[in-house]
Amino acid sequence: MSDDADTPAPPPLSRETAHAFLRGRRSVRRYRPGRPPDAVLHRIFCSVAMAPSAHNRQPWRFFVIRDRALAARLATAMGERLAADRRRDGDPEEAIAQDVARAFARITGAPVVILVALTMAEMDTYPDAARGAAEHLMAVQSTAMATQNLLLAAHAEGLGTCWMCAPMFCPDAVRSVVPVPSDWELQGLVTLGRPAAPGRDKPRKALPEFVRLGPVATGADDPDADSAWTDSTAADTEPRA
Ligand SMILES: Cc1cc2nc3c(=O)[nH]c(=O)nc-3n(C[C@H](O)[C@H](O)[C@H](O)COP(=O)(O)O)c2cc1C
Fold first, then answer.
1. N or C: less crowded end of the chain, CB within 10 Å?
2. What is the tens place of the pLDDT at every residue in 151-179?
3. Is residue 19 part of a domain?
4. How far apart are CA 25 and CA 17, in angstroms?
5. Which domain holds residue 118?
6. How far apart are CA 145 and CA 153, in angstroms?
7. Atom of ligand 1 nearest to the CA of 202
8. Number of structural domains in the chain
9. 199 lines ligand 1 (CB under 6 A)
């Protein structure tokens, strides 16, 4: 292999900057007034488009709500459904009212609300249920990858976001208000806007709780040992809130 092939292309950001950026995103649940211009939304969705996806089918779909009156109708419809579900669970009325009011405030307090969905229209089909379920799961995974790009691209614009799961629990309520195409399967929504305050730090698991490093060969038997990669940086510090 030539020297050129051995040398990784320089990253567009320094390592420290890239890691600090990734670790700096927080869920934001209160926003200042003011809708980001469409040019900003366009930039964000150009980055969403670059997410990886199973077979590169890009099954994600997004419906961008930029009208607070429509967001309020959506929040009301979802809130009615949430209240009905929780009443069936036997929860106290006061707790239900609080929960519904909190979700309503979060959704209507955002200048932009983005419904996240997937479509199976271009995914593979199988005659058996097991492979069909795996294919569907790959569409879910791909859509989550795209949504993470959305959160990070918004973060790059200085905007805050919060992923909310509510539409998964009441797709009919969403459809009663927002004209989403019939093949779109709702996965959640993302609120977006300029943060009214920084998002709160949430605790993180220590790495040994979620990473297992497999063994390596010793000495000359390890063709992948590379002492050039053992340098340390500020990005080595574990992000524990
Ligand atoms: C699939 C998914 C569903 C979520 N649903 C909600 C939600 O319904 N309401 C909410 O306030 N936050 C929701 N969140 C945000 C999480 O609470 C948040 O990401 C987590 O607490 C870590 O905080 P951070 O995003 O600030 O790092 C959701 C996040 C994900 C990935």
1. N
2. 999 999 999 999 999 999 999 999 999 99
3. no
4. 13
5. 25-193
6. 12
7. 23
8. 1
9. yes
Tokens of 72: 């309020």
Does the C-beta of 81 come closer than 6 Å to ligand 1? no
Structural contact between residues 206 and 238, judged by C-beta atoms closer than 8 angstroms? yes
CATH code of residue 120: 3.40.109.10
On whether residue 106 sits in a domain, the answer given is yes
Q: Give a yes or no: residue 175 inside a domain.
A: yes
Q: Which of 162, 168, 240 to mutate to test the pocket of ligand 1 (most atoms within 8 A of CB)?
A: 162
Nearest CA to ligand 1 atom 4: 164
**pTM recorded for the entire structure:** 0.92
225 Cβ neighbours under 8 A, 6+ residues apart: 216
Distance 164 CA to ligand 1 centre (A): 6
Give the contacts of 212 (CB within 8 A, at least 6 positions apart). Answer: none
Q: Would residue 201 count as lying in a domain?
A: no
- In the reported structure, the alpha carbon of residue 202 is separated from the centroid of ligand 1 by a whole-number distance in angstroms of 10
The confidence score (pLDDT) of residue 236 equals 79
Q: What is the mean pLDDT of each run of 10 residues along the chain (241 residues)?
A: 57 89 97 97 98 98 98 98 97 97 98 98 97 98 98 98 98 98 98 96 97 90 76 73 55
